[in-house]
Each structure stands twice: as C-alpha cells, then as structure tokens.
C-alpha cells in the first residue's frame, strides 16, 4: 500500500472526530467532489504543500521526546527543545472571515465554473446580445448551492473539531492529575486515560492499572476491527502505579517522525536513573496507543504523548485515496471538447460572414439603423473581436452549466438505490450495501475483469476445524460445530497408543494450544450474563485477528485441550485429564505474510520449546525429521478437498541455543533502523531444524451463491480472476467448487513446479501455442474448450520482471497477457498483497484498457481495491479496512451479481442517455439561433427571450430527464438477473461511442432545422391570425421555443410512468410563459414578451404548426428505433419483447 | 462454542459502533424500506417501439394529417390576395420619379399613383398591408433601440429615455430628449396609401380605410400609453421633448383627428414598433370593412393606389409593396402549412405500409426464433 503523504494530490482531507470520521468523510465522498465540490481537493493539496514545506525545514529522521518535559541529566545528551504542533485537530477549511473569498477561489478553479465566469464577465463588459443574467443566474445558483453545502459541511467540521479539541484530558503535572483540554496537550505530556475513553493523541504506553502491564484497546474507528487488541506497557515503567511515581520518571523517547502506517512504529526509550547508565528499551507498535482507539477492560493507564494533532497516525491516514474517474466521464469530457470546438467555429463562421455581408455601408449602416459615434470610432479589429465574443456568448448555451449539476445530482441521488436495496441487505450483519463514492455508479455497468479475493470473499471466512493429522494419524473431533460440546475425554479417536506416538500427539496438541495470538475474553459484562445463561455455565471465548487461529484453538478445545488464559506471561492449558499446565511465554515470533508462519518460544518446567505453525511450503524446507512424506500426502489430499492446511512443527532448544535466539531477537527489536528487515533475518536464523508434528485442516465454506454469482458473471462476459494468498491446491479446489473452473475447463499451469523443469520462456511459449491452436480449431468446431490458467506468485514476479533478453523473444508480459486473454478464468495463488495490485495494474494497462473491478474483504486486498477502476469491499470478518477503502461495500459476495448486472446496467444506461440527451437538447436549442443569424444580418440578435434562454436548461427541460435518468428501467430487474448476457450489450461503453454521439448531434441539428424552417415558412410574408394582425420577431422565437420544449421533453418520454413529470414540466412551461407575458413587469426595461405567448396561442395555424413540427421532429428517432429493432435487435430488445410475450401468454392462460 | 464466540464478537462491534458517535451507527443498522420506489419496482408501462406497436400510430397520424392538410390547402387557396410593388426602381414605373427625387429635407410631399385591376371580387373584410423587403427590423442594434417605459407613458422615461436609444436619444441640436426615442420609432413607415375604385362609369370613389383595430388590443390598451394627465392637451404632455430626427411631424400630431389614436397610442406607430421577425415582412396598414349589403367589399375592376411617397428604401435595395388580402380562420394566404400536413401525413402513411411489410418479415421471424429460448 502506498500511503505516503506524498501522493495526496487527489485525496480527501477528512480528519474528523472519531465517530464522525466515517460519517463526514463518507458524506463528502458521496457527494461528488470532483466537479462541483472540488475544493476539498484543493485544500488538501494546499495542506500537503504546507506540510512538505514544514517538513523540509526541520528535517530529522527521528524525534526526541522528553517525558514530562524534563531535561536529561547533563552529559547524557544535549537538550534540544523541539517544537511540535499542539494537539489541535483542524479539519475545517475555512474561517468565518476567509470563507467567501477562499470558497469562491476554489470553486472557480474548476474549469467549467471558470468558463461560465468568463462568459459572464464578457457579457458584463461588452455589448452582448443576451443580458448577463442569462449566464449569471445559473452560475450564481450553482455557486451558491455549492457554497452553502460546503459551508455547512465546514461548520459541521468546525463543530466536530471544537468538541474534539475541547474534550477533557487528564494530564499529570507536578505529581497531580490535572484536567485540561485536549488541544492543549503537548508532546511529552504524560496523560492518564480511563476505561472507555479514547486516546487524545498517539501515546507511548507507560503503565497500566492491570498488573501485567497490558491494556486492551479497540480500534474500531481506525480500521474497523472490533476485536480487542492487547498493548504492552514499557517493561521498565509498568510498575509505576500512581501519578507521583509516573511523574518521577526521567526518560527520553527517540522515535521516528510521524508516519501514516498504523501498524508500524519504531522507537527507543532511554530511562535515566540516578547515577546509572541509562537503560534503553525498544518500542514497537505494541507500545504505541493510537489516537482514535478506545481503552477497554482496563481501569486506567498512563502514557506519554509522542505525536500530537495533525501528526497523529489517524490524521496522517484518511488522506490518500486516489480519485477514480469513470469511462463515461472521460467520454463526456471528449464530447465537451467537440462542442467547444463547434461553439468556437460557429462564432468564427458568423463573425467572418458578418463582415463579408456588411461590406457595403448600406447594409452595415442603413439610414434607419445608425451606430453610435463611439462604435464608429472603434477600430475594426476590436469590433471584430467584440463581435466574435458576442457570438460566443450567444451560442454559449450549447455547453450548459446545468449538465454538470444534473449529472452530479443523478449520480448522488441514484446511488441511494444501492443503499436502499433490500436484496443487498444482510440480516446477519445488519447492514446493506454502502456507497463511498457515487462517481463510479455507471462504471459498474462496464466491468470486464473481476479480480476477487478468495478467503472471506468467495468463502465465508468462517473457519471450522475439520481434522488434524498427527504423525500420519488422523484425528477428527466428533462434535462438529452446532455449538455443542461433547465431553472432552470421548472426543479423540485413540488410534495409536504407542508411547512415541502419544508423545508426539501431546506435543502436537500443546503446540496448537500455545502457538497462537488468540486472546481469551472473560465474560464479565452484561453481555456475559446473557451468554452465561445461554451456555449454562460461565464461559470465556476467543478473540483473534485471524479466524484460523480461533478455529484451531476451539478445535483443540473439542479435542480436550483447552487454552485458558495468558497470565503473567504464563500460558495455561487445561489438558485432557483436567490438569492445568503452565508454560512461560518467552517470545512470540509474529505471523507475517512473507514468512507465512509464526512461532512461539515457551519454557515448560525444564525445557525450552519452540513451536511453529505455518503454510506447508514455509515449514517443510525447515523440517529435519518427522514423518514428512505421510504428512505431505495428507496435506495435499486436504488441499484438494478445498481445506486450508497448516503444518505444525517444534524444536527443542538448549539453554545456549535459547540464549542465542534471545540475543538475535532483542538485538533486532532494539534496532532503530531497518527493524523489519533485521527481525526477518533473526526469524530466519531461529526458525530452523524443526521436527514435524503434523498438520491441521480447517474448512472455509464457500459463500452462499458464490458459484451462481460467478456463473452469472461469466455469462455476462466478465472474466473472473481469483487472486489469493492460499496454496494452489486449496485455491483450485475452491475454484472448482465455485464453478470458476468447470470439469471441461482445460487447466494451464504456470507454476513454480513447472518452471523448475522447463525454463519460463519455454513454458510461456508452449502455453501460448496451445491456446492459439485451440482458438484456430475452435473457430471451426462448435464446442470450444475454455481454458483456465493457474499461476503462482513466484512465477508471476518472474513474468513481470523486465526481461533481460529483450532481443528476439519480445516481452513475457505480452505473451502472458495473450494467454490470459484467451482464458475464461484465471487463478493466481500465493499472492502477496502488492502482487494483487500489480496484476490489476497489468490488466488495466494492457492495450484494450479494460475496466477492472476488484473485490475483497481484508487489509491485504486494499491495494488492489485502490488500484482497480472500481473497488468493492466485502464487509467481512477481517475488519473493515477493505470496506473503508473501497468505492462500494457490500455485505456478501453474492451481492456483486445484483450490483453489476442490475444496478451497474441501469446506471450505465441512465447516465449514457442523460449525457447524450443533454448534448442533443442543447443542439436543438442553439442551432436555430445560429440559423437565425443568417436572417438578421449576423447581428447576434437572440431568437429567444432572456427568460427562456436562462430557464431552458434550469427548469423547463431538466426535471424530466433527471427523473428519467433516475428511474429508467428499459428491462425489469428480474429479466436482468435472469439473463446475465444482457450485460454484454452495454459493454465497452457502447452507448457513448462516437457514432452514437454523432447520431444524437445530427438528430439535434435535424430537429433544429425543422423547428427553424417550419416557423420560417409559416411566418414567411404572411399573417396567420384571423384578425389580420401581424406577429413580430419575439413571437417567432416563442413559437420555435415552444416546439423545442415540447419536442425535447417528449423525447424523454420513453417511460410513460413518468407521465406526471412530463406533463408537469410542460405545464410549468406554459404557465410560466402565460405569466411572463401576462404582466407589464415593473423594474424591467423592456416588455418585449408582453402577451406574445397568448397572442400566439390565439392563432389556429400556430397550434397546427406546433403539432406538425413536434410530430416531424419526433419521427426520425422513432423510425430509426423501430427499424433497428426489427432488422437487427440487440439482446436487450429481444428480452423486452420476450417479456411481453410471456405476459401475453400468461394473460391468455388466465382468461 | 464457536457460534457463541462469533456472536459475541459481533455484539461487540455493534456496541462499539453505536457508542462512538450517534451519526454513523444509527442508519447503518436500519434495514432499507421495502417500498416500491426504493426497491425500484415502480409500476411503469413502457411502450416498446416495435413495428407492431408503432404501426397503428403511423396510420392514425396519416389519416388525421392528410384531411387536415387538404382542408388547410383548400382554405389557403380560397384566399384572395393582390400585391402591388410601388418602389419605383424601374424607370417606367409610376413612382420612379418620387423614388429618385427623394431628399430628407424636402417639405413638399411627392405623390404618385399606381393603377391596378382586381380580376376577382374580394369578399368579407379586406386587409391592406404594406410590405418591405430587405429591411432588417430584426437587426439587434435596431431591435433593442427603444424604451418600453417611455412608450408606456412613464414620465421619467419620457424626459430621460433609456441609453439603449442611442444614437436616437436626443436631438443633436436642441439636446432635447426624443420622444419616442430609438431607431425603431425614428424609422416609422410614413408613406400614406389611399385606395380609389374606378367605377365602370368612369367616376372614382375613395375606398374607406379603417385605421383602428390594426394593432394588438393589449399593445394599444396596456403596453402603449401617452404620458401625463389625460385632461391635458397632448401637446402639453409631450412638452420638453423633441420629435424623432426623421419624422416630419411630432408624435402628438400623428393623427390629430382622433385623440384615441394619437401620440404613442397611434396604431400605425404601434404596428411599426412590433419588430418583424424576418427582413422581408408586411405590416397591417388598414382594414376595409365589408359592406352591410351583399356586395363584395372590393368589387372586381380597376383601382387606383395613391401614394404619398415619403419612405426611402432605394439606398438599401429595399422594396415597398401594398397588399390587399382577405383572411380566413387560418390567416392569410399560406399554402405551406397545408402542403406540409399533406406531405407528413403521406409519409407517415407510407412508412406505415413499409413497417407493415417489415413487421411481417422480421418481427414474426425473430419472435418465433426467440420463443424456444
């Protein structure tokens, strides 16, 4: 994950209070920031700049914190007072004073707003055909609404900041606890935090009310993980129990400068005691209490502030989330450029024609129409330029402000349908789907590749211990699941009772009971009482960040070995004979995804033991004895069944070996630099020469309807790739179970096993040949074989490595892509998180630029979720990190089907039609004005009245299309779900391709020509009233405008369910026009529209021509649709008809 | 056991979620409403445009439009219209001299007469129009060069007209504000047309031309008003203003005979002030009321049009015409609408037939192919 503060360019700056973090940042994500609400972005950029400047100023690798602001004893170190920001959290962007200028500045940084501002200013400065109101009013409206919204959001942020900054904090000063406000906290202050309070800043944990120097913390508001995590106090200070003691501490902390990674911290504490050498202790992430986390099950703790305010890890997080832009948006921008070009060329053409036409002075200035003296004196170039600008202003409505507003509104409001969807609501979780950004709604309808995680996404991540194999013998707990516990003694099949076997078995079970990081949660709260009654006896239950571990420990419990607790560094186990065994826990070598194993070193009564469990691939190479072959066979068999396997091994350490290991570990842990790397090295040295004990198998069931979902996605033409960290056999079994691979699928393997035998080069070329041959054959035969590819992490990195032998053979990358293109399903196993993102990137940047979607549930999927065009998080058990970083979050994998096939399809169709329609309706609107210039001496005379020009896009035509684009359903939800192949109809942005765009534009031009010349011939030198009176130019414009509004509105009437809106909108137009022309408006300096509309309606031919023109302009579109449908119907159109037939059939039967 | 631990975990998350801050916790746990709107199940009847469904519509349109078109065409053809061009471009035309000798300063009006013959009698009311060609009343500089409040009788605007009227705002010599100001008013059409009927017996009789009722009722009564108090003399009310530069007489002398038709509410003036849409236009000039007896309003025969030639159009290649026209319910002679209706109706009918064929050929085929699926 690249989360460095460097790439914050396009990120949100949403640091908030704990609870509102999610609410507000979600809020700001939901409301599109890109267009209207752009300023978040700017602010952020500004802030990051500020930060980076500040960073360069006093750039040091580490900082020294003086606990309690006490100077170190002389001679130890030079006391350098350092300045750190106070603990004030500032997430607000504006103050009362700078709101208006700053907000305006930020809004006009947006190119569209700026364009309209320029038009408005041009209108103010030069003598333009339309009043500045026509562009000023919509712009003002948009700017005001945005400003109000942003102002309100900022006010909320101010309030949140304020309440957070003023929340009380207990600080130890002069041996007393003093209550102060959070924002007054400084680095070096010693803070006391009580139970259920949140930490006010990032703190180093000094001591706890618990005797063992631990405390429990939930980080729900940071990463969404609700489990209690244990943090450890600095061993040398954990004895300090009172304020006085704590305040007497004389120490400094050296630690790295603030970094956004939540799980990393490197530091060292130096404790000075009288006349002694200072004691150094290493500090790690387990000592650092993060701002935003909450203290649980611990009365109080003392801790010292190291990072405050904007430097806390929480503040540094919430920053980098790259903005994604949808394909629709890109084509929209392309269309806009075309229209801008049309606009400019229109203006140029008219300007040139104007000067050609008025070459003769009689045309330029006939006696009845003189210029003013000022105008005459103006230089001809200036005049021409002014004319050009005036034409620009006249035609500028072709790019409407309202399009942005409408598109934003459509996206924002439309996204509610996802959250509202009942079918995507999960009863168990109590949550429905979440929308984190509405910018990508339509992208859901364009997905070509789905990259899915396996564990927790395809599968339940609800682990169940199935069996274990000890030294070649298989043990199966009798009581499987159901929450039932059988008596411990009866639950082991005693197959082998030989003393050696028993020894191994005992060791195996102990290993599983000891080698883990599971915590025991004692029930003591109200919840516990409830549960106690439920269970019939007081219980405790296990918590861990890894569900596998919980499953294993519980499986052991069922087999008779109960892990009781960790007390004073002693792990207690209740064995089969109801005896308590105690082991001293010396070291935990934590799990990481690179090593793929974890170890503990414990001391039983007399001996040092190291237990290790991990993936088979990481254990077997380090095993020296044990029944390797048998276990291996068993593990492979389990893997084929789709079970998750772990191998367990142990090593007996002699005293000296232990000391050596200890030495390695402490040295690595104390290192200030490259600690990770040195720890890894130390682990590598220590974890060797194991004796294999056995293996375990844990089942992770497939999620409900996972297979059905994958099948539907396949039918929809989407390629599904599974990216998993699991081993190949397990993953392949899951793939078969989830129908990603079918029995008929020919599997191509690109694994380490194979590349060992042949060179990567040969394998790739061979596979490529196979695929190509098959394709050429399948071109002839009907049943084509589909291919499935399996690739593992090691091979992938080899493929992706920039090849040295560039000459001749070309790049592996291309060949790999070529193979992938021909495979219907790809399984990538043994993937590191970053490799997942690499794969996504590889496909994303391949030459077709397909739209990718990544779905996952865990923190290891975040990188690919951020990388893919659309990232979907599953609200899984491995915390909420994926859901938080995703664009959309769904409770279960099966919901992906509805998300893509139904919602994505609808959103795409809706937005595509909305965009096309907007361009169409503005061509219709402006092109008659252009034509009119040929009949008014290119004088920039507007055809329509100012009010019509202003309101056309804002109110006369915006509502029907907005509603249409919100509720349009050309096919029902059920049909879409039943026939996934309909998804192919809209693939590759098919509704926004250039021919379609051209068609709509031509349609607009055609309609405009019909409107204009229809009215022209009607007006041509004759009267059309029954009293002989004549109409003027405003009636001419109004007639065209009326036809225009009706045609354009009726074109949006594909769905008559919207009837009331359509008619409402038209009625509004009519009523407005009647009112606008019905009164001599005071304060207006012209009354040109007075009674124009009524007079027009009083004329019969006007009615007749309105009807005629509307009919004619609607005709071509209808004919085109009918012909296309009749001659070459798309699958969607067939589905519509089929549904109809079904209905008719049904009616027939019912009758 | 496992189930219980799982539940507990969830409960825990639940608890902490809602306890942090009310904002996020509350709506999350709410199950979405099962309403038709939110679940996108609004009943909607969607017309699917297939040849089958559109067919009847096409035939219906065809069947309605063609009769309407025929009706319109016949009506338009029954209208009688006669047009006389009296610009005087050709040397042998009667007004050639007047057109050529035109000067802005001449005080003596130039009069010319044009003879013409109506071959058919004009029944009912006959409307007399003057027509101008190549006259850009819709030029932007021209259209906006007026002050509606001045014309509405607002006293302040009378003496201090809008800047839009420039350069026809004030009299260059006296510096008095012009009433009515602006280019439109300044270029008021000021030819006088009189019509004489040459009776078969050789006498000529003047045809009565009604000059009221030619402007919109609302314009005459609401939009245009004379300034000042009704009791005062009109001349008084326009005191302190100058006449438009090109006018021969001030605004309060436009029709001294009829106080209801004088000043700003002079109907000729109002008609002129409604700017035409296109550079070739006609404006209603006079109405010839039908006679109470059954004799035609304008009997067939010879007529003399007497023109007081004041209005120069030669400079911009303009043309001046006098048009006599009868009117039906659908206005003057305009075959366009009728022809358009007939054409569109026929096209629709024809398309209906084409679609019928397509429907027979394709729709049934594709449907039958689909049904087995």
From TrEMBL, chain A:
Return the SUPFAM superfamilies for the record: Calcium ATPase, transduction domain A, Calcium ATPase, transmembrane domain M, HAD-like, Metal cation-transporting ATPase, ATP-binding domain N
Q: Where in the cell is it found?
A: Cell membrane; Early endosome; Endoplasmic reticulum membrane; Membrane
Q: Which cofactor does it need?
A: Mg(2+)
What are the recorded Gene Ontology BP terms?
A: phospholipid translocation; positive regulation of myotube differentiation
List the membrane topology term(s). Answer: Multi-pass membrane protein
Q: Which domain of life is it from?
A: Eukaryota
What are the residue boundaries of the P-type ATPase A domain, all occurrences included?
Answer: 168-312
Any GO molecular function: ATP hydrolysis activity
Please state every residue range assigned to the domain named P-type ATPase C-terminal: 883-1130
Offer a single GO CC term for the protein: early endosome
Which sites bind Mg(2+)? 453, 455, 857, 861
Keywords on record: ATP-binding, Cell membrane, Endoplasmic reticulum, Endosome, Lipid transport, Magnesium, Membrane, Metal-binding, Nucleotide-binding, Phosphoprotein, Translocase, Transmembrane, Transmembrane helix, Transport
Known EC number(s)?
Answer: 7.6.2.1
- Give the transmembrane region(s): 108-126, 334-357, 388-407, 947-967, 997-1019, 1031-1048, 1060-1084, 1090-1115
Q: Which InterPro entries match?
A: ATPase_P-typ_cyto_dom_N, ATPase_P-typ_P_site, ATPase_P-typ_TM_dom_sf, ATPase_P-typ_transduc_dom_A_sf, ATPase_P-type_domA, HAD-like_sf, HAD_sf, P-type_ATPase_IV
Per UniProt, ATP binds at 453-455, 549, 591, 613, 644, 724-726, 830, 836, 860-861
Report the sequence similarity comment from the record. Answer: Belongs to the cation transport ATPase (P-type) (TC 3.A.3) family. Type IV subfamily.
What does the annotation say about its assembly with partners? Component of a P4-ATPase flippase complex which consists of a catalytic alpha subunit ATP11A and an accessory beta subunit TMEM30A.
The name this protein carries in UniProt is Phospholipid-transporting ATPase
Q: To which species is this protein native? A: Poecilia latipinna (sailfin molly)
Automatic annotation (TrEMBL), chain B:
**Has UniProt tagged this entry with the keyword Transport?**
yes
| Cell compartment(s), UniProt | Apical cell membrane; Cytoplasmic vesicle, Secretory vesicle membrane; Golgi apparatus; Membrane
Membrane-traversing stretches: 48-74, 336-358
What GO biological process terms are annotated to this protein in UniProt? phospholipid translocation
Query: Which range is the signal sequence, renumbered to this chain?
Result: none
Report the principal subcellular site.
membrane
InterPro entries cross-referenced by the UniProt entry: CDC50/LEM3_fam
Q: Which UniProt keywords apply?
A: Cell membrane, Cytoplasmic vesicle, Disulfide bond, Glycoprotein, Golgi apparatus, Lipid transport, Membrane, Transmembrane, Transmembrane helix, Transport
Residue ranges for the region (Disordered) are 1-33
Annotated coiled-coil segments of the chain = none
Q: Which domain of life is it from?
A: Eukaryota
Annotated GO CC locations: apical plasma membrane; endoplasmic reticulum; Golgi apparatus; transport vesicle membrane
Topological category with respect to the lipid bilayer: Multi-pass membrane protein
Any Pfam family from its record, for instance, is CDC50
Query: Which family does the entry's similarity section mention?
Result: Belongs to the CDC50/LEM3 family.
- Its name, as the record gives it, is Cell cycle control protein
Q: Please report the organism this UniProt entry assigns to the protein.
A: Poecilia latipinna (sailfin molly)
Query: What taxonomic ancestry is recorded?
Result: Eukaryota, Metazoa, Chordata, Craniata, Vertebrata
């Amino acid at each position: 994950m690249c989360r460095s503060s460097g790439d914050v360019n396009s990120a949100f700056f949403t640091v908030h209070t704990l609870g509102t973090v999610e609410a507000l940042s979600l809020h700001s994500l939901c409301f599109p920031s890109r267009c209207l609400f752009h300023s978040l972005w700017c602010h952020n950029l500004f802030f990051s700049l500020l930060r980076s400047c500040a960073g360069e100023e006093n750039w040091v690798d580490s900082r020294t914190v003086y606990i309690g602001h006490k100077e170190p004893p002389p001679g130890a170190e030079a006391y350098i007072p350092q300045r750190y920001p106070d603990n004030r959290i500032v997430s607000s962007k504006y103050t009362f004073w700078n709101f208006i200028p700053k907000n305006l500045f930020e809004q006009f940084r947006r190119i569209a707003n700026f364009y309209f501002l320029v038009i408005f200013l041009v209108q103010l400065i030069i003598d333009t055909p339309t009043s500045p109101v026509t562009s000023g009013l919509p712009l003002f409206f948009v700017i005001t609404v945005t400003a109000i919204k942003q102002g309100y959001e900022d006010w909320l942020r101010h309030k949140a900041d304020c309440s957070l900054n003023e929340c009380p904090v207990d600080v130890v000063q002069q041996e007393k606890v003093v209550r102060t406000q959070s924002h007054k906290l400084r680095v070096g202050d010693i803070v006391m935090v009580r139970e259920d309070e949140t930490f006010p800043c990032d703190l180093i944990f000094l001591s706890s009310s618990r005797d063992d120097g631990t405390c429990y913390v939930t980080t729900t508001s940071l990463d969404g993980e609700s489990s209690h995590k244990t943090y450890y106090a600095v061993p040398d200070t954990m004895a300090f129990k009172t304020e006085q003691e704590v305040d007497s501490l004389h120490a400094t902390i050296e630690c790295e400068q603030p970094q956004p990674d939540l799980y990393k911290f490197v530091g060292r504490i130096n404790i000075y005691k009288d006349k002694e050498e200072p004691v150094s202790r290493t500090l790690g992430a387990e000592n650092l209490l993060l701002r935003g986390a909450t203290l649980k099950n611990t009365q109080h703790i003392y801790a010292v502030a190291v990072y405050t305010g904007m430097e806390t890890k929480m503040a540094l997080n919430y920053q980098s989330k790259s903005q994604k832009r949808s394909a629709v948006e890109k084509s929209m921008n392309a269309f806009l450029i075309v229209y801008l070009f049309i606009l400019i060329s229109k203006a140029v053409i008219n300007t040139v024609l104007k000067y050609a036409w008025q070459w003769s002075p009689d045309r330029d200035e006939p006696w009845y129409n003189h210029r003013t003296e000022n105008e005459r004196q103006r230089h001809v170039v200036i005049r021409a330029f002014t004319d050009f600008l005036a034409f620009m202003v006249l035609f500028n409505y072709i790019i409407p402000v309202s399009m942005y507003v409408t598109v934003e509104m459509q996206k924002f409001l439309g996204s509610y349908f996802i959250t509202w969807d009942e079918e995507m609501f999960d009863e168990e979780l109590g949550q429905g789907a979440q929308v984190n950004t509405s910018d990508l709604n339509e992208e859901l309808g364009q997905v070509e590749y789905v990259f899915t995680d396996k564990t927790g996404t395809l599968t339940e991540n609800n682990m169940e211990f199935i069996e274990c194999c000890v030294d070649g013998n298989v043990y199966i707990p009798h009581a499987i699941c159901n929450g039932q516990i059988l008596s411990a003694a009866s639950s082991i099949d005693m197959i082998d009772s030989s003393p050696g076997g028993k020894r191994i078995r005992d060791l195996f079970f102990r290993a599983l009971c000891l080698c883990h990081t599971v915590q025991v949660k004692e029930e003591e709260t109200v919840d516990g009482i409830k549960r106690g009654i439920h269970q019939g006896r007081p219980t405790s239950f296990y918590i861990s960040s890894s569900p596998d571990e919980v499953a294993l420990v519980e499986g052991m419990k069922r087999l008779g070995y109960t892990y009781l607790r960790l007390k004073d560094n002693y792990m207690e186990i209740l064995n089969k004979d109801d005896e308590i065994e105690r082991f001293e826990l010396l070291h935990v070598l934590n799990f990481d995804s690179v090593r793929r194993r974890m170890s503990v070193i414990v001391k039983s009564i007399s001996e040092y033991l190291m237990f290790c469990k991990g993936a088979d691939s990481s254990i077997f190479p380090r095993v020296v004895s044990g029944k390797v072959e048998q276990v291996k066979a068993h593990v492979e068999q389990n893997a084929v069944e789709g079970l998750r396997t772990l191998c367990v091994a142990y090593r007996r350490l002699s005293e000296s070996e232990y000391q050596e290991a200890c030495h390695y570990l402490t040295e690595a842990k104390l290192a200030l630099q490259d600690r990770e790397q040195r720890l890894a090295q130390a682990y590598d040295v220590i974890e060797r020469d194991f004796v294999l004990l056995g293996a375990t198998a844990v089942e992770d069931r497939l999620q409900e309807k996972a297979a059905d979902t994958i099948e539907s996605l396949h039918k929809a033409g989407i390629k599904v790739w599974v990216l998993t960290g699991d081993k190949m056999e397990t993953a392949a079994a899951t793939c078969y179970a989830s129908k990603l691979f079918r029995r008929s699928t020919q599997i191509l393997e690109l694994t380490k096993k194979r590349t060992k035998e042949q060179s990567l080069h040969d394998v790739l070329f061979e596979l490529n040949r196979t695929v190509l041959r098959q394709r050429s054959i399948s071109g002839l035969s009907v049943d084509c074989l589909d291919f499935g590819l399996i690739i593992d992490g090691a091979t992938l990195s080899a493929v992706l490595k920039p090849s040295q032998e560039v000459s001749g053979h070309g790049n592996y990358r291309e060949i790999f892509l070529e193979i992938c293109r021909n495979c219907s399903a790809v399984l990538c196993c043994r993937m590191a998180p970053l490799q997942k993102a690499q794969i996504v990137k590889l496909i994303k940047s391949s030459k077709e630029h397909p739209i990718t979607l990544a779905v996952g549930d865990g923190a290891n999927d975040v990188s690919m979720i951020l990388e893919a065009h659309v990232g979907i998080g599953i609200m899984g058990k491995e915390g909420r990190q994926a859901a938080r970083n995703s664009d959309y979050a769904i409770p279960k994998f099966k919901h992906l089907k509805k998300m893509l096939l139904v919602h994505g399809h609808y959103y795409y169709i809706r937005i595509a039609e909305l965009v096309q329609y907007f361009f169409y309706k503005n061509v219709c609107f402006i092109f008659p004005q252009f034509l009119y210039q040929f009949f008014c001496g290119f004088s920039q005379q507007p055809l329509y009245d100012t009010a019509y020009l202003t309101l056309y896009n804002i109110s006369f035509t915006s509502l029907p299309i907005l509603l249409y684009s919100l509720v349009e359903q050309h096919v029902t939800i059920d049909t879409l779900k039943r026939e996934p192949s309909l998804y192919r109809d809209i693939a590759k942005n098919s509704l926004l391709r250039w021919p379609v765009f051209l068609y709509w534009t031509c349609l607009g031009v055609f309609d405009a020509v019909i409107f204009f010349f229809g009215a022209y011939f009607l007006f041509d030198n004759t009267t059309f009233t029954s009293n002989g009176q004549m109409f003027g130019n405003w009636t001419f414009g109004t007639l065209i405008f009326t036809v225009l509004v009706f045609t354009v509105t009726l074109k949006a009437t594909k769905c008559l369910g919207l009837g009331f809106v359509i008619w409402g909108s038209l009625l509004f137009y009519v009523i407005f026009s009647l009112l606008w022309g019905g009164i001599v408006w005071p304060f207006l300096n012209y009354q040109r529209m007075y009674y124009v509309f009524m007079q027009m309606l009083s004329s019969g031919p006007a009615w007749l021509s309105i009807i005629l023109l509307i009919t004619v302009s609607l005709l071509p579109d209808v004919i085109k649709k009918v012909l296309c449908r009749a001659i070459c119907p798309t699958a969607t159109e067939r589905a519509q008809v089929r549904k109809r037939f079904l209905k008719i059939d049904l009616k027939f039967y019912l009758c | 056991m496992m189930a219980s631990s799982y539940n507990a975990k969830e409960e825990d998350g639940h608890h902490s979620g809602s306890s942090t801050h009310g904002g996020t916790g509350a709506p999350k746990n709410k199950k979405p409403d099962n309403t038709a709107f939110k679940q996108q199940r609004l009943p909607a009847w969607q017309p699917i445009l297939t040849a089958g469904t559109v067919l009847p519509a096409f035939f219906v349109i065809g069947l309605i439009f063609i009769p309407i078109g025929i009706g319109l065409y016949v009506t338009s053809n029954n209208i009688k219209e006669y047009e006389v061009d009296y610009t005087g471009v050709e040397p042998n035309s009667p007004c050639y001299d007047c057109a050529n000798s035109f000067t802005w300063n001449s005080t003596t009006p130039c009069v010319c007469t044009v003879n013409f013959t109506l071959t058919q009698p004009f029944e009912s009311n006959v409307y007399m129009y003057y027509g101008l060609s190549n006259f850009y009343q819709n030029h932007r500089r021209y259209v906006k060069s007026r002050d509606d409040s001045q014309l509405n009788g607002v006293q302040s605007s009378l003496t201090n007209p809008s800047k839009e009227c420039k350069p026809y705002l004030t009299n260059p010599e006296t510096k008095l504000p012009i009433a009515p100001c602006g280019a439109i008013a300044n270029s008021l059409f000021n030819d006088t047309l009189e019509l004489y009927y040459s009776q078969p017996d050789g006498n000529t009789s003047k045809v009565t031309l009604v000059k009221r009722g030619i402007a919109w009722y609302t314009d005459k009564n609401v939009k245009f008003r004379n300034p000042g108090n009704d009791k005062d003399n009109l001349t008084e009310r326009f005191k302190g203003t100058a006449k438009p530069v090109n006018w021969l007489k001030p605004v309060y002398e436009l029709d001294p005979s009829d106080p209801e038709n004088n000043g700003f509410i002079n109907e000729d003036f109002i008609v002129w002030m409604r700017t035409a849409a296109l550079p070739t236009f006609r404006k209603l000039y006079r109405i010839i009321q039908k006679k109470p007896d059954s004799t035609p309003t304008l009997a067939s025969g010879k007529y003399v049009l007497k023109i007081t030639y004041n209005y120069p159009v030669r400079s911009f290649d303009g043309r001046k015409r006098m048009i006599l026209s009868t009117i039906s319910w659908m206005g003057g002679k305009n075959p366009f609408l009728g022809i358009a209706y007939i054409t569109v109706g026929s096209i629709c009918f024809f398309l209906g037939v084409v679609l019928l064929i397509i429907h027979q050929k394709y729709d049934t085929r594709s449907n039958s192919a689909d049904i087995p699926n």
